[in-house]
Fold:
Amino acid sequence: MNITFHINGSSQTVAIADENTPLLWVVRDLLNLKGTKFGCGKAACGACTLHVDGEAVRSCSYAIKFAEGKHVTTIEGLGTKESPHPVQQAWIAEIVPQCGYCQPGFMMATAALLEKIPNPTDEDIDRNIINVCRCATYYRMRKAIHRAAELNAANVEPESENS
Amino acid sequence: MKTKLALLFPLFLGAVIISATTNTPTTSNYMEVSPSEDMELTSEEAFDKMMDVLTHQRCVNCHPSDNIPKQGDDSHPHYFGIERGEENLGYQATNCATCHQAENNPYSGVPGAPEWSLAPHTMRWEGLSRIEIAESMMDPERNGGRTPEETLHHLTEHELVLWAWKPGVDANGQSQELPPVSKEDYIAAVKKWFEAGHVIPTE
Amino acid sequence: MAKKRISRRKFLVRGGLGALGVLAVGTYAFRNPLRRSILEMANSIDLPYSGSGMEPMVWFEVTQENNILLHSPKVEMGQGTFTSLAQMAADELEVSLAQIQVVHATTATGSIDALSTGGSTSVSGLWQPLRELAATMREMIKGEAAKKMAIDSTNLQIENGIITAGDISMTYAEAVANVSEWEIPDTPTLKDIKEYKFVGKPLPRIDLEAKVFGDPIFGMDVEMPDMLYGAVVRPDKIGAAMASVDSTKAETMPGVVKVIQEDDFVGVVARSLLEAENAKEALEIEWNVSKDWQTAAIVEMLKVGNGNPMILQKKGGGVEDGEDTISLEFSSPIGAHAQLEPNGVVASVEGDKAIIKISTQVVGITRKEVADRLDLDVENVNVIPTYLGGGFGRRLHTPHAVQAAVMSKAVGRPVKYFFTRKEEFQHDMFRPPTHHMLKGKLTQEGTIDTIQHDFSSGGVAIGSVLLPSAAHAILGADIGAIRGGFCQYGAIPNIRTVTWHVDLPFATSWWRSLGLLANTFAWESFMDELAMKAGRNPVEFRLAHIQDDQAGARLKSVIKAAAERSGYHDTPQNGRAMGFAASTDAGTPCAQVVEVSIEGDEIKVHKVTCAMDPGIAVNPDQVRAQCEGAIIMGMSASLFEKMEVVDGSLTPTIYGPYEMALMRHAPKEIDVVLLQGIDKPGPVGEPPLGPIGAAIANAVFRLTGKRLTAMPLKLS
Structure:
């Protein structure tokens, strides 16, 4: 079957035999966007987290058929080296990654969190950020999440003054 | 990017023809039920049959008393600290739909159905007796303001309720236990009990 | 240890390396064999860099863009080695950090570590040779520049890879262009550490951007043209042997290219990953299982007294049981690595050559195993390491590289294959479970008179490809299991430490810090018990039993620093108690203080203060990052993690049921204090894992009066 959806801002149509193929493998193996990671394939670790219509979704457990007409964003579409997303800026400022494998999933989950809760408390972070990091970079991630919220606020305020 | 993809298509077409035969539940584990008996059910028998289902973990796991969804046949607390949240859908950014979609996922073993969510706190059943569950279920104060007709509809036609008979597989690809009554017998029993005036037996 | 200088004769110089390099410098031999020290030394073993002496090793290349390519013999698995090596090289090469690009050395470029990346030895082991090579190369370039500029080299200034004399300047790339005869100087005197611009500074990791923007740097991300996907069957049960295989159905599954049956494995190659996995599930296999193991049987096997004993420490007399004997037993469970990137590999075998791209901690061993199995010349097998999505010791075993190579050869195309998460958990090379018996006697004055530690463990080093089987016979004890097993309080008059080795029915091996976590849990919980029995403050009690030598002085320093910085006190306040513990691992002492409360049944860790003396911290920020990560990983193992053996299978097989520390469990405050008690870098990546478990248990004792003696620590 053909499935058409938007990925990182551009429209794509994929032809696929099994409509239940996880979105993860379409993104990684067909679209060759390797930033979204396979960790467990059971929606347990969160390494494959990306956004579907702005919501955090574990793509290993998301059948491609559900993506029809949706807007999918991966780490490659979150920000670029030239124009990083505030979450990425904060991750760099706090020097969060160690091995780095789980980090795109955490950054995508964080970006979704900040859309819902622009200034999350520690409790908000504890509840919503439940991915697994074996290097256990949680301590710096928490700092980076708060910093990203501050960066977001700083970015938003001047605009609202102008408008 | 378009051009590149066009080249990739033929490769991928061949590369993702996947059998749908794996990871689907292969056996049902219904208890033996004699169909002939169903025709003669009394209201009390119908009640018991309905309650055999409603007290099963497939139902009670999502009607918790403590705001924590339960998982699996051992009804363990949902892993990763998931809780009810303000709208019975989990937390704001990490919620039911982060992992649960409108259908079971055959690859991950994550269950799914339309409107996947916890039953509201007023509809908590965990730890209640059959009679208490029935009282709760029929009480508009607690059942979301449903009339008996609406409750009957919820019990017999709501896809999320009927998901109990197609719960899919667990993370290891093992089938999850089904309720102890078949879907058809359950629906017949529910209908019978409502037709007979939905009388809740006394202790 | 005597400094080993690089001999001029052993220097390799290559010119005209094509597009990339105009000069490459390396060595022919820099072999420093694994020291087979006596067992007392094995505990503080600090494995030096162990390069192969057989082949030339390229370390640095000057590129035409005037950048330096540093071929790292060590792999980057998150520990920050690439960044530290770049800092060391930049300082001696007189280039900016941005001019250094660190890449994994491949077996074709040569400078791989013949042993492994592990044991917290990468920076400490390369500290001397890498700087000497960098300094030598700088002098060689300077010499060529002097010739080209016709100026005496003593009059040349160097900054950021540009050589200047007055108004004339020349880049390194220009200096080294078209040089055919190189003059190799004696190893120059290295700079004073105070002159370094990069070493000792908390600079950002050089792989930071790649990791924040999702660049495809991991083994899992590798593709090769025309690649197929493989899958290999693994049994659910311990000790299962394949009795029969019926591949009739699997062979007809969509996308299947070939089912491969070897003596030691059965694999499927298909067009896609999911097709390969589906076909694997369709294989009908009968397994012979001689016994359905259960956790209880493993625990019983492991009891001290059931295995093979070996005395590690014997000073004075042992403990004789009596009324005044204080004794406690401790245990730790089977632990999984649970690294996020599954083990995987892409192999391409064509004719008599093989290319293996893989996340591995044992580049050289991976290469040799593939060459041996396929009967290829080892020179024809090029192992290209990628960034590792977590190592933790798991990637010291790579039989999957052999399997992928066999499958690739069978189908004549590259094959990519990796473990499912279930396979990762069931077929991990587990951290072995342990059992500990501690006995002690106090004097009238409240000091320790006698102490004895008997501990039993499954294999860590024994049976590992990293050590020849003869090593066990020579050493007598498992050099991995004994990490942290020794008594670090040398002032105690009577000390006895005995290690018991038990062969378990499933594979156990290297897990970050090896025996350190469990041994320190036992030792430092017992020290706490003795301090309480003696009615003494646990900090002061520890200090009173440390001997007066350099190791003792460093241990005392970290203990004092942790106590002072945390404001350690021995009485619970406002529902919180502090717990103290210290360890010495591979020569690096570390002390930690935790602040703990009990919420419901949950042990909540609020703050951890960590004082560590790793010697010179080449990158203090990354040393801190290692401490923070090790503390939370150690918390995870101490409070939550546990594999069980149920009806013959290792379980659970997924995150969640395999409970681990998550964001909500991480302490809100981690305060790391770094001391420098020696003038070289010491091990960093594992030592801070030592004290955490005992520190938490000791805090819980102060809150509840309950001595928790089994990991994972649970109140009910």
